[in-house]
Here is the input.
Amino acid sequence: MAWIYLVVAGLFECGWAIGLKYTDGFTRPIPSLLTVSAMAISFWLLSIAMKTIPVGTAYAVWTGIGAVGVAILGMALLGESRDIMRVICLLLIVSGIVGLKLVSTT
Here is the structure.
């Protein structure tokens, strides 16, 4: 169950990171409220996952999911580069996340 919490925490991290773009420096109330809510949920779920998963593994997976997710959302929503080398680097991050799960004892 801890891994499910961790993955969902990573997805909420994507939400708040992208949400920052839409807050306009926290001057827009609704995007700001949604972004701060996503932050709180992400941190809360991460803390629950860390009860079982070692901190180094949990944090690396959480940030990895966030990094890959935000990069993909940046490409899809914000017109960021889809350069093949960028995609390959994102795949390397995903392989690291999968590797950490495979060698995890929890």
